């Protein structure tokens, strides 16, 4: 089975790192990702630069990315102002975030979950009017650092509303890395029932070492789109000792060894992970770059 791996390193991989990388390094990260065969990249987020200084140069980054007909660049937005910036910058897709629990949503976005969904309704309509695909990521879908377990019925209801608003894709995010494969199976089935026909994507963190098991569980359920970050950088600021996103190169190794295809060169991605670690001043959490591929071939 073919799996589309969405590279989120330029956005989620960098936005919580202490070291703020210059635009030219971010652009090179994206160029390296494209050269490795990655065709969907969450390149930037259009959020308040005072709150997320790592993303303050979103427009500059988008102005410098390589433009190819087979590569789609995603911009993350939280509100209509962010959408307007994203459209002006020339993104191919926008991805809005709705946190599944009120406490986390207020802390993260300053609004309740219902208010975030109302904002998504407007974002989806405006994006459709502009001819730009719009997806929604349901954050903290597996658990919340403030409220504990996230009710799966809540996640399904948000997905239902997103489907009704015209979302082109629904992504479920294990934002703090607490999920297990049983939850992946349960949420996949609930969301498919709530949002029939809407493609499903997953975004896993490896905070408690379950991220890759969860990714393979999603693939076993027929999910064909997964997020990952080169080097395994990033993570949630509300998750103590978070180890970041699942690493693109390590995910590719697992998918390829399972007989799946991605069209991406895992060895090239691993080299980029090591390169990115040098720029961030710390080794990449990913393991493929250390252990090497087996039986010695890329892909």
UniProtKB/TrEMBL annotation:
Residues 3-270 form the Pyruvate carboxyltransferase domain. GO terms for molecular function: lyase activity. Keywords: Lyase, Metal-binding. The keyword Protease does not apply. It holds the Pfam family HMGL-like. It comes from the Bacteria. Belongs to the HMG-CoA lyase family. PANTHER family: HYDROXYMETHYLGLUTARYL-COA LYASE. This is Hydroxymethylglutaryl-CoA lyase. It comes from Actinomadura yumaensis.
């Amino acid at each position: 089975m073919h799996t589309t791996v969405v590279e989120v390193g330029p956005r989620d991989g960098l936005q919580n790192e202490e070291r703020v990388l210059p635009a030219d390094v971010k652009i090179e990260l994206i160029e390296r990702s494209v050269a490795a065969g990655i065709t969907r990249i969450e390149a930037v987020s259009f959020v308040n630069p005072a709150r997320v200084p790592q993303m303050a140069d979103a427009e500059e980054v988008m102005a410098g990315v390589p433009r190819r007909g087979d590569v789609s660049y995603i911009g993350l937005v939280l509100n209509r102002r962010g959408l307007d910036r994203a459209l002006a910058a020339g993104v191919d897709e926008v991805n809005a975030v709705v946190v599944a629990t009120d406490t986390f949503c207020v802390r993260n976005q300053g609004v309740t979950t219902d208010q975030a969904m109302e904002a998504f309704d407007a974002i989806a309509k405006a994006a459709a009017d502009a001819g730009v695909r719009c997806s929604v990521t349901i954050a903290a879908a597996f658990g919340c650092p403030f409220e504990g377990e996230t009710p799966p019925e809540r996640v399904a209801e948000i997905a239902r509303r997103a489907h009704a608003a015209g979302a082109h894709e629904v992504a479920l995010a294990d934002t703090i890395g607490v999920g297990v494969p049983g939850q992946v199976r349960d949420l996949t089935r609930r969301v498919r029932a709530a949002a029939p026909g809407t493609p499903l994507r997953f975004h896993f963190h490896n905070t408690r070492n379950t991220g890759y098991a969860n990714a393979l569980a999603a693939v076993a359920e027929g999910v064909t789109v997964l997020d990952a970050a080169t080097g395994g950088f990033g993570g949630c600021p509300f998750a103590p000792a978070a180890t970041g996103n699942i690493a693109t190169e390590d995910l590719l190794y697992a998918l390829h060894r399972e007989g799946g295809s991605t069209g991406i060169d895992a060895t090239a991605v691993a080299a980029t992970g090591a390169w990115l670690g040098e720029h961030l001043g710390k080794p990449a959490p990913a393991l493929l770059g250390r252990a090497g591929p087996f039986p010695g071939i890329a892909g």
